[in-house]
Design brief:
With 131 residues, the protein is mainly alpha-helical. The chain is built from five helices and two strands. The chain has helices spanning 2-20, 38-47, 65-78, 87-104, 116-127, and strands spanning 29-32, 56-59. A two-stranded parallel ribbon has the order 1-2. Helix 2 links the parallel strand 1 and strand 2 (56-59). Helix 1 packs across helix 2 and helix 3 (65-78) crosses helix 4 (87-104).
């Protein structure tokens, strides 16, 4: 029973931290997995008026799998690096990995997923190099 209370407290603390972040807006819908601690934590946040009453909590068992699969490529690059020397190094490196992954997946306007030549040209334009 104590463990369940700790889980709810941890979930509540996580949501509070996420809601306080300056780059986040108050959500309309919160998508989470089936962890039992989430509904009581959300109820607690609604009672304390950190979340509006009409904010919807959607629990789907495997909802985060798409995100995890998307980051599998990034994880594969980071693990051999054995960590980073500093936070700023990690931030810059991961930003580069994410950007290159987005280009590779065709998420950039005018650069198709299957057009490798266009991808190379785009990267060369960004960095001002001759390809």
């Amino acid at each position: 029973m104590l463990s369940a209370k700790c889980d709810v407290h941890a979930a509540s603390r996580f949501f509070r931290k996420a809601l306080k972040a300056c780059h986040n807006r108050t959500p309309r819908i919160i998508n989470v997995d089936k962890n039992a601690a989430y509904p009581p934590a959300i109820d607690e946040l609604k009672k304390s008026e950190l979340l509006p009453d009409d904010c919807e909590l959607r629990q789907v068992k495997y909802l985060n799998n798409n995100l995890e699969q998307d980051h599998r490529f990034i994880k594969r690059l980071v693990k051999p690096g054995m960590g980073f020397a500093s936070f700023n190094t990690a931030r810059r490196t991961l930003r580069g990995y994410e950007t290159m992954n987005m280009i590779r997946k065709g998420q950039v306007k005018g650069v198709e997923k299957t057009d490798i030549a266009a991808q190379v040209k785009f990267v060369a334009q960004i960095f001002g190099i001759i390809a």
